[in-house]
Amino acid sequence: MSDDPSSQPVPASRAIGIYEHYCEHPGCTKWGGWGFPRGKQTIWFCREHRETGRTEAGSN
Ligand SMILES: [Zn+2]
């Protein structure tokens, strides 16, 4: 166990670009860990709103 922050790897999220995706639910700023295909895109929603994402994706 180490609490030394310098030992933690710095995520290169900016360089990757697509790595950063937050919940697309209006007003929600949580991390979007659940992705749903919508057209050629993927929409991302947090755990709370993943049901919304499923609906938005139009899966039937
Ligand atoms: Zn959300």
Automatic annotation (TrEMBL):
It comes from the Bacteria. Pfam families: EsV_1_7_cys (PF19114). This is Molecular chaperone DnaJ. It comes from Mesorhizobium mediterraneum. The lineage of its organism: Bacteria, Pseudomonadati, Pseudomonadota, Alphaproteobacteria, Hyphomicrobiales.
